[in-house]
Amino acid sequence: MPQGATATMSNVSLDRRAWNIRRKALLMGEVQGQGYIGQALGVADVLAVSYFHALNHRPGDPEWQGRDRFLLSIGHYAIALYAALMEAGILPEEELETYGMDDSRMPMSGMAAYTPGMEITGGSLGHGLGIGVGMALGLRQKGSDAFVYNLMSDGELGEGSTWEAAMSAAHHDLSNLICIVDFNDQQADGPSTKMLCSEPLDAKWEAFGWYVQRVDGNDIPALVAAFDRARTLSEKQPRVIICDTRMCKGVPFLEDREITHFVRVEPEEWAKALDVLEQGKPQ
Amino acid sequence: MTANSLARKYEARRVIPKDQRVATSAMIASLAAEGYDTVDAPFGHALVDLAKDRPEIVGLTADLSKYTDLHVFAKACPDRFFQMGMAEQVMLSAAAGLAREGFIPFATTYAVFASRRAYDFICMAIAEENLPVKIVCALPGLTTGYGPSHQAFEDLAIFRGLPNLTIIDPCDAVDIAQMVPAMADHPGPVYARLLRGKVPSVIDRYRPDYKFQIGKAALLRDGRDVLVVSTGLMTMRALDAAEKLAADGVDVAVLHCPTVKPLDREAILAEARKSGRLVVTAENHTVIGGLGEAVAGILMRERVHPDFRMIGLPDEFLEAGALPTLHEMYGISVDAVAAQIKGWL
């Protein structure tokens, strides 16, 4: 059990944490009338397991030196991470209504200088894993036990820099680096697997020297097991967890939309989405 | 493509008499003019000296430690040296990550690879975050005859538009030795153009009391007829050209601007306001978007209107060949600098 994660001590279930993250993301989407809701709903389980099971962090002290670093390569997923940071008590809930507004600490794309808990400025894809390599090297140099997590998307597998970083991490035996790939098979122009970097993804990472796990990213017990394995493995190699997730998970009428990369939600649909989510509320 | 145009395509670009052709080895010739002392790998040695008392100094390279003088550091501090392989994007991303963990990374490659290939990584991972990453790059401007793949004739133009980034173009071994600790003390990111290998010492001959300071220009030579505002190795060319011109009775002042961004506005304005002098900028870089246009911008904004000329590389992809030949051809040799100035008087 991580020492600093006070939230893990609570008896709130991970299912409920994920549900809370989804609800907050929808509320933020409603405030702004838009947002990367599909990704947020899809990755909520991964974030719940990250912040309420795996990560060693102190909500009141987001820059605590001993924390595990959680990098968001994918700046446009910021709405999802804001929801998780709020749920974790790192961002105050009152700020929810400022999402994407002037003077907000929560801009549409995630930036390190704006938001407590946002470790890097993502958004230009293919940056996170490389920065993670440097942070993992630096932590090892300092004798720190902290892990670096990088949450990236399947679309970033098309960026060559991702593979430079993957080679580098394995070459430097970075066992303190854990990459999480949100594999929802959607990018701006359509399914990721029809764009550039397709299967077999497990074999690709393995060939690059990584310890690979592939799980259903919306199955919380499977995620818990994968994160535990990634943290406790004794081999001197970096670890990747490929999470197959479903865009818009939890709101079936949105899940069924054909285009979910930037999902079009009509004004009256926000309430409907919240209602539908409410019906699946876990204990 | 017709047979004719194909034939033209592969013709020699210039015809130089056989006995005047310079060998390929001169493609990476020493930059020292005759009569100057040289220092071996001043950057590498300065970094080792600095690192002795500064455990946060680390070095990274993308397969070019021997060609950026970082091998000296790698040998002295092996536990603080990271070989990142031929992968400039991850090298600079990793440098950003190390900086986030409290280190001061010096990352080296060639100027073309940092500026062209890794720009987005320098912009977003380093400059936007204002992280103390020091990017030190060999082969700036026209310092190799390998052709456009290795000639960073436009790196200043690329980087000048990048907020937070300090840009240094040192003249010689004296500048390089002094800039290293100054870069480490500077809180933000720095891009430095590097002269490597046997680097001449020039500045101390003119100003034994010279002190490199980020953002400061230094008047290395005064003169009543011409003011040359120069940076990088063009300062040594300007100084030598000034000696030549003095023999013809032309008195040339040389204002050395080792920091291209931020430029020393006050020093440039003070010197340019002295009336009656031709003002010439000199840079080892295309005349588009480098020192010359930066100085012109300062002068125009302050309504200082001297007779103004620019010496620099032309707006074209440069040829491959022997370096001394190319410097002559593109107007940045000592003789060419002196001739251009004389022609403008």
Account of the protein in words:
- The complex is a heterodimer of chains A (283) and B (345).
- Chain A has helices at residues 14-32, 37-54, 78-87, 128-141, 160-171, 201-207, 220-232, 252-255, 269-279, and strands at residues 69-72, 148-153, 177-183, 211-216, 239-244.
- With 283 residues, chain A is α/β, with parallel strands linked by helices.
- Chain A has a single domain (12-279), classed as Rossmann fold.
- Mean pLDDT of chain A is 93; it is low at 1-7.
- In chain A, strands 1-2-3-5-4 form a five-stranded parallel β-sheet, with helices on both faces.
- In chain A, 38% of the residues lie in helices and 10% in strands.
- In chain A, strand 4, helix 7 (220-232) and strand 5 form a beta-alpha-beta unit.
- Chain A is globular.
- Chain B has 345 residues and is of the alpha/beta class.
- Chain B folds into two domains: 37-200, Thiamin diphosphate (ThDP)-binding fold, Pyr/PP domains (Rossmann fold), CATH 3.40.50.970; 204-344, Rossmann fold, CATH 3.40.50.
- Chain B has helices at residues 3-9, 42-53, 71-76, 88-100, 111-117, 119-127, 155-160, 173-185, 203-206, 233-247, 265-273, 291-301, 323-329, 334-344; strands at 38-40, 57-61, 81-83, 104-110, 134-138, 166-168, 190-194, 198-200, 218-221, 226-230, 252-256, 259-261, 278-286, 308-313.
- A seven-stranded mixed β-sheet of chain B has the order 3-2-4-5-7-6-12, with helices on both faces. A five-stranded mixed β-sheet of chain B has the order 9-11-10-13-14, with helices on both faces. A two-stranded antiparallel ribbon of chain B has the order 1-8.
- In chain B, strand 2, helix 3 (71-76) and strand 3 (81-83) form a beta-alpha-beta unit.
- The longest helix of chain B has 15 residues, at 233-247.
- The chains are: A alpha/beta (283), B alpha/beta (345).
- At the A-B interface, helix 4 and helix 5 of A face helix 4 and helix 6 of B.
